[in-house]
Design goal:
mainly alpha, 52 residues
Length: 52
């Protein structure tokens, strides 16, 4: 029984994938993006409520 028989995976098998620097947002950019998405969702739900 040698050491090579005990395969447990790589060193990074338990770590999460990293986000590339180009795709990272600052906190203020993230807040702006979330505000836009929430505004878009609320405006679409308002339109659905007006139709009924």
């Amino acid at each position: 029984m040698g050491r090579d028989e005990h395969t447990t995976g790589g060193k990074n098998s338990s770590s999460l994938p990293q986000t590339p620097k180009k795709q990272k947002l600052s906190a203020s950019q993230m807040r702006e993006e979330m505000a836009r998405e929430i505004a878009q969702l609320t405006s679409s739900s308002d339109m659905k409520a007006k139709r009924k």
